[in-house]
Each structure stands twice: as structure tokens, then as C-alpha cells.
């Protein structure tokens, strides 16, 4: 991540990103059409294709006023639907799915199209002058405003369809899974072109930082440049998503550096007052598990959704077993300059299983599904340390299930092959 991509990432996550850009485009288009009208495009079209030009000022004013009022109502209704969607997603699934819905490009583009058309029609309406013998009504601009309004109606129909689909839990789970898997695959692709060789860091000098917030990334290019400049290697002792307090020992350097160098290195570490998903794959595991646990609450009582989340988690865990426990920033010559701490497979698996065991240990179908996930991971993972971790989780799941499930027949089927009937 560099400075530009970091800035774009912050801006892109805001709901007003695309609406602002498209609205400005509508404003520019309005001024462009006013200028073109002064050049006489409507007068020319009156002679060539009179049916394309509205040649009555009062009619043009009525049409534009009606379109503006209607589009404002449509915009308010659409924004209300977005707010309702966010409220339902927060209460039914998890508040952490909101950033993904807010940053949905389709919703932003449709809302931006509404505002752009409203602005266009307002400025075209302002440009209308009292009717005179020598004055030609900007009929072509009015016609273009009508066309834009019709396109807004078509977009509204699509918006209704899209928003009804986006609130469905299956689509939410699919999007989270796709985004998390993409982040993991990107890291695995980078990992193939790297070595995991790095000097021992136990004797290196540790440095504290005096910032507070969630650590969400590094300006890789800037940090690599600093490493080369000061001829030192660095170990970042933070993992993405970690909340940092003042005085936290954040990184270690091989060589002793002055204060200016340490400040420059600290400035390459990115922090935020809120959790940002970005390319943090751990966030996806957390979102899926929270949705699954929420589905098992008495108020929602949807074990089918919990089973679906376990399917997606199984797929992601299979990818995670291939990942190293550390990330590296590597120069073009293949030399690892920076080593970055990551959340371990054992930690992520434990956090996921701990929550499911607590809230789902009484449900035999969910327990069997979790058991199937663990058995699948054990069969596909070639890492001996992973096998020990998985076997420990199987043991803990069995103990909790025996406490939560009293039916002997159910317990006898706990380790049997799971066949979904939903």
C-alpha cells in the first residue's frame, strides 16, 4: 500500500464518494449545455429535427419543475431504503457488515445519478429566460433533462431489485467470503515469489509508538525505501486489526537509529479510530462467525444460516493453512527487509471455535457441522502443528457437546458424516 492507494481506500469507503463525483459531472454537464445553447444548438435542431426541441418556455419550465420535484422525492425514498437496509443488516446479522453495504458501488452510483440529474435540471431551469421574439428556448437541454429523468426511473427499478438482493443473508455471506478469499489468495500469490528467510530478531532494539487506534496497514513502498536508506531490517510487531495504545512496542530494528529515522518509520504505519476491513482477511473470519452466532440467538433462531457460515469458514480455513505466520516486504532482488506479524492459524481457529462452542453446543446439527469442518481441515492440511491444533479443537468441541447435549443418540452421531437436509 502506498500513500495514494491509502487515500483512495479511505475515500472509497465513504457512502458519499460516487454520489459526489457523479453530481459534479451533472453540474459540469449543465454548464456545458448552457454554453452549447448559446452557440445555437436548439436553433439549429429546430431547422433539422424540430421534434427534438421543446420550443415553448412555459412548457419547458413546467416539465423541469415537475422532474425536479419528482426526483427529489425519489432520492429521499431511495436514501430511506438504504438506511432501512443498514438498520436491518445491523440487527439481523452484525453491525460489522455495514461498511461493505455502505461502500457498495451500485447503490452509490444510483444515488449519484439522482442528484446529478436534479442539479442538471435546476441549472437548466435557471437558464431559461423570458420569451422574446429573438430568443430560442433551450429545448434540446430540456429534452436531455427528460432523458436523464427517464434513466433515473430505470435505475430506480434496478435499485429496488439490487437492494432486495443485497439484504439476503446468502448474498452477504457470499460477498464476505469472496472478499476474504481474494485477500488470502493475493497474499498466497505474493508468498510464492518470496522466501521466508529472515534474521533472528531476539537481540534487536525495540521501539515504542505513541499513537492510539486500530492498526490497519503499512505504506510498503515508503517503508522499504527507509530500510534501504538506513540499511536496516525491521520487524513489525503488530498485526492488522490490533488496537494500539500509547507506549506499545510496535517494531524492532536491526541497527540503532536516530529519532528522525524512527519518526519516519512510525509514519509509515497506518492507524484509524475505527476498524477498517481493507485487505485484512481476519476481518472476514470474524464477520462470518458473528453472523453465524447471531443466527443462533433466540430472537432470530436460524440454524441454517449458521450452517452456511461454517461452510464458508471451512473454505477460508483451507486457504489459511497455506499461509505463513508472517508477511514480508521484499525488494526487487528478493531480499526480505521487513517482517510483519500476522494472526496465527491457531489463534483464528480458536477464536472462531470458542464462540461457536459457547452458543451452539446445544444444537447437534451445528456441532456435527463444526466437527465436519475440523475433520476436513485435518485431512487437507499437511502441517503437523496444524494437526495438533485441530485435534485439540475436536477434543474441546466434544467436551462441550457432551455437556450441552443430553440425548445419547445425538451424541453417538456427533462424529458421523454430516449430510445437510436444508
Automatic annotation (TrEMBL):
Keyword set, alphabetical order: Membrane, Transmembrane, Transmembrane helix
Signal peptide: none
InterPro entries: DUF2254_membrane (IPR018723)
TM regions (residue ranges): 15-36, 63-87, 108-128, 140-160
Record-given protein name: DUF2254 domain-containing protein
Organism, scientific name: Maribacter confluentis
Lineage of the species this protein comes from: Bacteria, Pseudomonadati, Bacteroidota, Flavobacteriia, Flavobacteriales
Amino acid at each position: 500500500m502506498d500513500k495514494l492507494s491509502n487515500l483512495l481506500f479511505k475515500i472509497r469507503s465513504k457512502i458519499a464518494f460516487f454520489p459526489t463525483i457523479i453530481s459534479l459531472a451533472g453540474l459540469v454537464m449543465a454548464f456545458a449545455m448552457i454554453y452549447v445553447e448559446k452557440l445555437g444548438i436548439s436553433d439549429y435542431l429546430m431547422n433539422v429535427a424540430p421534434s427534438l426541441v421543446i420550443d415553448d418556455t412555459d412548457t419547458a419550465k413546467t416539465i423541469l419543475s415537475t422532474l425536479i420535484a419528482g426526483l427529489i422525492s425519489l432520492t429521499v425514498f431511495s436514501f430511506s431504503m438504504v438506511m432501512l437496509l443498514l438498520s436491518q443488516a445491523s440487527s439481523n446479522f452484525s453491525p460489522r457488515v455495514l461498511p461493505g453495504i455502505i461502500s457498495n458501488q451500485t447503490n452509490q452510483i444510483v444515488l449519484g445519478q439522482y442528484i446529478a440529474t436534479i442539479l442538471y435540471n435546476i441549472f437548466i431551469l435557471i437558464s431559461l429566460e423570458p420569451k422574446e421574439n429573438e430568443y430560442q428556448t433551450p429545448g434540446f437541454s430540456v429534452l436531455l433533462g427528460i432523458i436523464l429523468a427517464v434513466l433515473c426511473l430505470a435505475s430506480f427499478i434496478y435499485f429496488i431489485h439490487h437492494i432486495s438482493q443485497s439484504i439476503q443473508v446468502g448474498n452477504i455471506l457470499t460477498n464476505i467470503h469472496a472478499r476474504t478469499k481474494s485477500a488470502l489468495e493475493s497474499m498466497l500469490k505474493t508468498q510464492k515469489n518470496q522466501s521466508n528467510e529472515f534474521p533472528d530478531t531476539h537481540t534487536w532494539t525495540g521501539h515504542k509508538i505513541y499513537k492510539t487506534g486500530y492498526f490497519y496497514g503499512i505504506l510498503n513502498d515508503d517503508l522499504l525505501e527507509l530500510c534501504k536508506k538506513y540499511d536496516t531490517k525491521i520487524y513489525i510487531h503488530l498485526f492488522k486489526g490490533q488496537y494500539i495504545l500509547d507506549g506499545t512496542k510496535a517494531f524492532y530494528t536491526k541497527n540503532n537509529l536516530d529519532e528522525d529515522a524512527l519518526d519516519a518509520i512510525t509514519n509509515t504505519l497506518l492507524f484509524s479510530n475505527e476498524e477498517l476491513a481493507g485487505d485484512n482477511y481476519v476481518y472476514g473470519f470474524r464477520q462470518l462467525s458473528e453472523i453465524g452466532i447471531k443466527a443462533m440467538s433466540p430472537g432470530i433462531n436460524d440454524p441454517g444460516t449458521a450452517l452456511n457460515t461454517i461452510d464458508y469458514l471451512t473454505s477460508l480455513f483451507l486457504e489459511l493453512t497455506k499461509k505463513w505466520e508472517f508477511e514480508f516486504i521484499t525488494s526487487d532482488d528478493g531480499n526480505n527487509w521487513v517482517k510483519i506479524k500476522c494472526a496465527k492459524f491457531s489463534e483464528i481457529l480458536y477464536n472462531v471455535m470458542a464462540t461457536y462452542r459457547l452458543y451452539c453446543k446445544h444444537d447437534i446439527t451445528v456441532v456435527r457441522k463444526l466437527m465436519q469442518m475440523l475433520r476436513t481441515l485435518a485431512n487437507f492440511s499437511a502441517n503437523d502443528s496444524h494437526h495438533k491444533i485441530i485435534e485439540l479443537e475436536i477434543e474441546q468441541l466434544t467436551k462441550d457437546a457432551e455437556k450441552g447435549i443430553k440425548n445419547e443418540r445425538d451424541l453417538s452421531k456427533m462424529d458421523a458424516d454430516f449430510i445437510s437436509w436444508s
